[in-house]
Amino acid sequence: MLLCSIKSQQHRGVCLVFRDYVPELDLVAVCEGKMVGSIVYSKSKIDTSDGRTIDDVVTFGPLGVLPEYRNRGIAAKLVQESFRLAKDMGFRAVIIQGDPRLYGRLGFRCGEKYDLTNAEGQFSVCLMAYELYEGALKAAGGCFSESESFGYKEEALAEFDASFPAKEKGESAFQSEFGVLITLNYKKDPKYAV
Ligand SMILES: CC(C)(COP(=O)(O)OP(=O)(O)OC[C@H]1O[C@@H](n2cnc3c(N)ncnc32)[C@H](O)[C@@H]1OP(=O)(O)O)[C@@H](O)C(=O)NCCC(=O)NCCS
């Protein structure tokens, strides 16, 4: 398996619809000459509790691997290599709203550990962070916001999808469960603080 920086104009065209897209971190995994996985990044920010804006943080999504190539470490390799590049580029952390069942295994910690809340100011089960160097998120607590490109409109997505050959849409049990987890916000309880 090879990890490559993406050069396909078509893929790059797709990614350019993301505001705050970071092309240097856009990687694809290639097996037997076929693109089997990809990871795409955008810039994000933290509005800290003491009034600063931290903008050297990034978020990835989507991360995807073709079904027949899953469970052989391809997503983990895409994540690890992009983290190495992000660190070299001077970013301090990767912060995502993702599934803790998956991203806990890839080294992410609960956002509460770093006093990070979502844009509504609440702690969230799915808000997770990975420091690219030790202490990177010390004194960085505050509200995390993804790029506005994550707030896409369903009609715009449907129109965009229609520009590709039709495919049957499906949702796995894992994805349905994530739909529940992402709604779980909470207030900090000192008894259970991480
Ligand atoms: C999620 C996805 C990217 C994982 O890709 P993959 O190449 O199979 O993942 P890896 O083989 O690198 O696995 C990395 C780790 O995550 C774990 N993992 C993989 N899929 C998982 C899942 N659905 N639930 C929980 N853990 C999972 C693996 O067990 C492994 O952990 P381990 O090293 O402790 O055993 C892939 O299943 C996919 O494309 N799914 C559809 C899109 C999606 O849900 N993307 C994530 C949200 S954007």
TrEMBL record:
Q: Name one Pfam family in it.
A: Acetyltransf_7
Tell me one GO molecular function of this protein. Answer: acyltransferase activity, transferring groups other than amino-acyl groups
- Cited CDD domains: NAT_SF
Q: Which domain of life is it from?
A: Eukaryota
Where does the signal sequence lie? none
Q: Which SUPFAM superfamilies match?
A: Acyl-CoA N-acyltransferases (Nat)
N-acetyltransferase domain sequence ranges: 1-133
PROSITE patterns attached to this UniProt entry: GNAT
* Name this polypeptide is given: YhbS protein
- Source species: Symbiodinium natans
